[in-house]
């Protein structure tokens, strides 16, 4: 096949027929087949916005055509196919155990079961349907289950998110493509294979997770819910057994830790066992809500009515050199109470596939470094916990909220403007700026006028500010070697909880990688 890049089609003229005509004009010969490889939006000129395509096409006498071709945008198509790992030589004498059923854990389990291994997946939370019910009850009455909530349970934290699949990872072995293909196999829309900013949506992602679980079980994998890793039995710096729910011992020489960035009790247990951990910088801040149509109009102008809800990515560096940026932008989404510890509150953003709430939200977060929280391994985690406790106390467990105007003026809002909150969980009006550390509040105040220059209306008085966005990433990295093994042999930390990935796709890729490592180590099971 031949790859053709940078094919532009004006948004209002977009169609398969228009694409084919453009291609035939460039190629000057009949085209048998067209496959979309990438589709993005070029909105630099609001007066004429284009879809930009990369396409693979089939024509007669391709080699002859390429030999005569002088256009640098036309090349031979190169497809990166995922190569499954080959088996190793060692004999596996106990089941591989995977802790956590988020993207990292699920993809590790999926590949291992495809290769004939029969891993045990333990999950401290509940199955999707029970978990969703538990979370909805929490949003309604504030009763939190510390083991089954927005952070913990089947599907991981991504199950209550926008389901974005963006990644900056360049995977020569085709792992990124493999992850998207697996998602499509289990129910995600096919468009995620080529869109510049693919997303599934929390509603569809839940079904994808259930379908993956059923497939893993059919291949011999075992899921155990309400099963929490509580201790390790280590001999001569090698894992021998694990203890779950403080009572049951399970023989285990290979433990995949896909615990997520919020498993603070597990981090503490690992630390007490002497597993090598490092503290790392992260970011904290607020969530901001705007009218989605305003964002669309600012991003797309008169073309907004022809395009899907717009997203954005904003960055700014303060006069003191501290980074401020938007994170996890959710078009047409909701701000959600994402707490996982009693008497502490953190929030996140979530969208369904249709992104139709009418409200855009994203985190506006500020870099937090060791200079802010301390040099000890667990200091960053404790810094998060302290601020989450302060946020909880401010509104007795409800999400603190105020308008941007009142945030600037350092006062409690008495009423809201035209932006109607779309929130999962209860909220109350409070002075968010007083909850945050002064350096975060001041950095956000400095950054917002700059953001307003990039997106007209971003700093409107009635934009809504909510606290606290505390868990953009793990404050801890579990040190691992080139084979993904920790300082204690037999323990393999992966995903967001390892401190090496961020988001659904990179975590899923990490799951594939560790399954490759273990497959390459052990013999095929007959």
Give an overview in words.
With 526 residues, the protein is of the alpha/beta class. The chain folds into three domains: 2-76, 2-Layer Sandwich (Alpha-Beta Plaits), CATH 3.30.70.2700; 97-278 and 476-521, FAD/NAD(P)-binding domain; 281-469, no CATH class. The chain contains 14 helices and 24 strands. It has a seven-stranded mixed sheet. A five-stranded parallel sheet has the order 7-6-5-11-24, with helices on one face. Strand 9 (238-244) and strand 10 (248-251) form a beta hairpin. Helix 3 (103-114) runs parallel beside helix 14. The longest helix is centred in the last third of the chain and has 18 residues, at 504-521. The radius of gyration is 24 Å and the shape is globular.
Task: Give short descriptive properties of this protein.
single chain; 526 residues; alpha/beta; Alpha-Beta Plaits; FAD/NAD(P)-binding domain; seven-stranded mixed sheet
